[in-house]
Design a protein that fits this description.
It contains 4 helices and 5 strands. It is α+β, with helices and mostly antiparallel strands.
Length: 155
């Protein structure tokens, strides 16, 4: 029987961790992967709220930030800061919002970086914009990958 996100959550199983072992829940991230090391993966969101919407996903399971060991917390947030600066530089965005939204019954801690492009109104509505389909842009994805690899603080 094929497991869905909902059926896994109803069983108390983290869908993200399940995917790591079985690879059959979420879309493949290979074409959207920006950076990966032993601690985390950083990739473009498959259904972004803004061009450049990025996910930073810890490989180890933690429900939310309160469970992170201090060293891990520092490393992931330093990486997020670097990623935000790279997105601002490469995409020419005015701001990059950071949120975690870890509120499900079975959760896997991750950070979302949502760029605010020029002429976009400021405010919390940017967190709930309609989602769009990811559109690859080789012009900037390679630059972002290169800069994140060069500038990763914990690599």
């Amino acid at each position: 029987m094929e497991e869905t996100v909902q059926s896994l959550q109803e069983k108390g199983i983290c869908p993200t961790c399940y995917h790591r072992g079985h690879g059959d829940i979420y879309a493949d991230t290979a074409d959207r992967m920006l950076y990966e090391d032993d601690l985390l993966e950083c990739f473009f969101e498959a259904r972004p709220r803004s061009v450049g919407h990025t996910i930073i996903l810890l490989k180890e399971h933690y429900h939310d930030m309160s469970q992170l060991p201090d060293e891990t917390c520092a490393a992931v947030y330093l990486f997020a800061k670097k990623a935000m600066n790279v997105l601002k530089e490469v995409l020419g965005v005015e701001r990059v919002y950071l949120c975690t939204m870890c509120d499900g019954a079975v959760n896997h801690f991750h950070i979302q970086l949502i760029p605010r492009h020029p002429n976009t109104p400021i405010g919390s509505k940017n967190f709930v914009k309609s989602r769009t389909e990811y559109a690859a842009n080789p012009k900037y994805i390679d630059t972002i990958r290169e800069k994140l690899t060069q500038e990763a603080p914990h690599a």
